[in-house]
Design a protein that fits this description.
Elements lengths: L5 E8 L5 E9 L12 H16 L1 H5 L3 E6 L1 H5 L11 E5 L1
Parallel strand pairs: 2-3, 3-4
Antiparallel strand pairs: 1-2
Amino acid sequence: MKQVVFVARQAVFDRAKKVFGYELLHRSDAQKNAYAHVNGNQASTAVMNTTLNVVGLSELTGDKYMFINMTRDLLLAEDFTVLPAGRTVVELL
C-alpha cells in the first residue's frame, strides 16, 4: 500500500521581513493542514524522503534555506547527512 505524505512549508523571515527560508513540516491531511500524532522520527524521515526523493528541494524552497525538525535519535544515527549542508538548518525536537 502506498503511503501518502504531505509536506507543509512555513516561511522563515529575516529582520528585514524578507523570506530567509522555509520550515518543512509533516502533515497527514491536505485539507486540515494539521500535525498528525505520529512518531517524531517517522515525521522527520517522511519530510526528508518527500523533499529529496519525490518533490525536490528546489521545488519547495527555491534558493532559500530549508529548516527541518530532527529528533535526537535521527541526529545520533546521522540520518541528516543526506541533506544539503549549505542549505539546511536542523532544529532539534
